[in-house]
Amino acid sequence: MKREGGEVLKLEHVTKQFGGLTAVGDVTFDIREGEIFGLIGPNGAGKTTIFNLINGVYALSAGKILFYGKTIGAGAAEGKKALQLKPFRIAQMGITRTFQNIRLFKNLTVYDNVLIACHRSANYGLFEPLLRLKGTRFVKQEKALKHKAEELLDLMGLAFYRDVVSVNLPYGLQRKLEIARALALSPKLLLLDEPAAGMNPEETDSLMQMIRSIRDDFHLTVLIIEHHMDLIMGVCDRIHVLNFGKSLLEGTPGQVQNSPAVIEAYLGVQDGERCAVKEGEQ
Amino acid sequence: METEQFLQQMINGLSLGSVYALMAVGYSLVYSIMNFSNFAHGGVIMVGAYIGYYAMTAANMPFWLAFALCGVGAGLLAVLLEVSVYTPLRNRNAPFLYYIISAMGASIFLENFVIATIGPTYRTYPQVFSTAPIRLAGLSLGRIDLMIIAVAAIGLIALVIIIDKTKIGLGIRASSFSIKASQLMGVNVNVTIFLVFLLGGILAGFAGMLFGMKYTVYPTIGGITTKSFVAAVFGGLGSLPGAIIGSVLLGVIEVMVSGYISSNFRDLIAFVILIGILIVKPTGLMGKPSEDKA
Amino acid sequence: MSWYYIEGILIQCGYVLMVVLGLSLLTGFTGLFSFGHAGFMAIGAYVAAISTAKWGLPFFPALLLGGIAAGLVGAGLGSLTLNLKGDYFCIATLGFGEAVRLILENWEYVGGARGISGIPWKTDITSVLIACTAGTLGLMALIRSRHGRSIIAIREDELAAQMSGIDTFRYKMIALIFSAVYAGIGGGLLAHYMTYIQPKMFQMVKSTEYTIIVIFGGLGSITGSIIGTLILTFLPELLRTLNNWRLVIYGLAVIVMMVIRPRGLMGGVELGDLFRLPARKRAARLAEQRLKSMNGGDAGKGAQR
């Protein structure tokens, strides 16, 4: 159920060099509203680097990234200066993410993890918390924040674990919590970095369900990096394939699966991945 | 006359820088592997200075024996600190701050232990070298200064050779890139870390004794390590050549500032340099840059 | 022990607590370490002392002025150094603290190494109580707000905090400025209790001592900071008969603490939590039990691939 919409994210000739090494070279693609967009490629293809470029952890060497038509990062070109919004600003604009190697606020409870990220739903000032009287903006907004956090936990099925210190959660729930935290900012675009890593087939299935329902319930656009071909082929509307930092191909799951170039990219690099592609074909 | 005075100051600066260098390499070695600033180093230097002092006065040892003993004693103390204080932290993967606080605790302990047992008085080493300076081309060179420069040169060259040319040194260099990876490659990290503390401790002991001979011995003598720490940061924490170059530069700058501007600014300049280098190039003159990975 | 003597120690606890509360915000809640807080304290002490002794300002405005001055300097230091990574920031504060002391030592207007004497004796148990109560309530209010939670997020994981839309630089700055203001006010209280101040009262050892109190009390706990201050200020006084051995024991205690109970006395727990949250704790325990039964006890370890 793909909803055709406007452009959410646009990468134009995006390039990133580390020293002499080109991690990402001249990658161009765009993601449309409501889409679930997959980014795949063998290890070292530059997928996570692209994530870090989108949310501003790295600055672009060349090229341009636009979010709803606004430039959020651009390399220096044609006399124009490089531009790079700060990561927190990009997150506030509506791009949030999860991490390949989960990065929760480990020593805090599940609830606190989400509550922290809800901060954008309030705008009281630095000194307002000093006055804790009924009816002040501070008290009202805090109440709303807490309500929002509880609601999110309910939605994500984490309410029962509300008071568990997040590091004590099992892997799957930690991933879920990370998604809940990312949703707390009411993003327009959600970046998922290998969300199925370490999950068994059943868990992967329910993750697929969840990604779809999140997309629908929160009116989101989703960009996924993943190695699990089941998940990518099962959930994505379009897929962009990278190899050695360069674009190889873009298309629907069907097109990508049948592309000899893609199969070769995987085969040529890593034996283990071949099975993954084959599984996806079935 | 002008150039002579300048050269004279250079030599004084070089002597001071050499003492700093002997201590700074200890900071840098530990930092390169364990990523924390070992503030207990000052305590090791102080104990080294006292060992040398008592070896020569109470035990009546000849200078060279006392000198060797002070190196061994300080080295062993440094290793003892590592085993008793840092190893438990290491086993628990404690954050760097816990190391720093423990190191501060150790330094408070050592200083006050010496005050409580030996007392806070300043003690003067028996005279080993004649205080009459050597006259050379219109310069007067203090014998102790020459001694300091010579010991520093030999000690540091030996250290560089150990690190660059031996198998032990290879282990140290490997561990400075990644403890985990070198462990997987068969480096015995525990032994490597002991050695780092031992080497740093020996040189610190030498520095303590030489500094004590030039001036006096007192329980808070370790305070000068703050300067050698500044020197290590100046040169680039974790870099051995950086620590040496940073120390020599700092020694010379300090002496020049106090000679040509005002002795009041001598200490201040060190900290101004520290803040300046951190703002301009936090990794120091020769430190390795690092990028955070998401 | 006479009341007069105890009162003296309590006043001492008071101005130490102001500095410790500030440091608790920076170290315990933000995760930044400072070895230069004696510098902020010195700035507050000198500005407040000059305000009353030389310019004839009343006590409370003078205290505030000292706090503001320290805060402004904190803002300047922060804008230069807060971009540095953790341990380098810590080193920069060390340099800052020493630089402040050395500048004071060489500045004749403020008395050079002799310092300032003849400061009016104004700090009594009442003023200390007012300052500490206001300080504690203010800090609690900040921590229990979106601002405080953002600050805690920085301590937990700075990158994840940025990705959650938190302006980490701004919040580190806020923490540093507030922390400096607290230390400055603490310095002002000290100056008007001792009635004289000298640069050597603000050596790096002092900064270390305050950091040790924060850690001893437990990172991320205001209650811990208060208890830590009381214990570590009273204890040396009680052990006065031991003379020089006091600090030997102190140094040893610090090491033992780091090795045995690095979380400190109250690590992350507030006094209120002990009474308020038994229901929450029960819920957490229940959830953890269920997790264990579900996963055969591998909670937290993560499933194998």
Q: What features would you describe in this structure?
A:
The complex is a heterotrimer of chains A (282), B (294) and C (305). Chain A is α/β, with parallel strands linked by helices and 282 residues long. Chain A contains ten helices and eleven strands. In chain A, α3 runs parallel beside α5, α6 packs parallel to α7 (229-235) and α7 (229-235) runs parallel beside α10. Chain B has a single domain (2-120, 140-280), classed as Orthogonal Bundle (ABC transporter involved in vitamin B12 uptake, BtuC), CATH 1.10.3470. In chain B, β1 (134-136) and β2 (139-141) form a beta hairpin. Chain C has 305 residues and is an all-alpha fold. Chain C folds into two domains: 3-260, Orthogonal Bundle (ABC transporter involved in vitamin B12 uptake, BtuC); 269-297. Chain C is 72% helix and 1% strand. Chain C has helices spanning 3-29, 37-53, 59-81, 86-105, 125-143, 146-156, 158-163, 168-194, 204-217, 222-238, 245-260, 271-276, 278-295, and strands at 116-117, 196-197. Chain C has a two-stranded antiparallel sheet. In chain C, α1 (3-29) packs across α9 and α1 packs across α10 (222-238). The model of chain C is unreliable at 297-305 (pLDDT under 50). Classes of the chains: A alpha/beta (282), B mainly alpha (294), C mainly alpha (305). Chains in contact: A-B, A-C, B-C.
List the helices and strands and how they pair.
The complex is a heterotrimer of chains A (282), B (294) and C (305).
Chain A: E1 7-18, E2 21-32, E3 36-40, H1 47-54, E4 62-67, E5 70-74, E6 83-84, H2 87-93, E7 95-97, H3 110-117, H4 137-155, H5 171-183, E8 189-193, H6 201-217, E9 221-225, H7 229-235, E10 238-243, E11 246-251, H8 253-257, H9 260-269, H10 272-281
Helix pairs in contact in A: 3-4, 3-5, 6-7, 7-10
Chain B: H1 2-34, H2 41-57, H3 63-91, H4 96-117, E1 134-136, E2 139-141, H5 143-165, H6 167-177, H7 179-184, H8 189-214, H9 225-235, H10 240-261, H11 265-280
Antiparallel strand pairs in B: 1-2
Helix pairs in contact in B: 1-5, 1-8, 1-9, 1-10, 2-3, 2-4, 2-8, 3-4, 3-8, 5-6, 5-8, 6-8, 9-10, 9-11, 10-11
Chain C: H1 3-29, H2 37-53, H3 59-81, H4 86-105, E1 116-117, H5 125-143, H6 146-156, H7 158-163, H8 168-194, E2 196-197, H9 204-217, H10 222-238, H11 245-260, H12 271-276, H13 278-295
Antiparallel strand pairs in C: 1-2
Helix pairs in contact in C: 1-5, 1-8, 1-9, 1-10, 2-3, 2-4, 2-8, 3-8, 6-8, 9-10
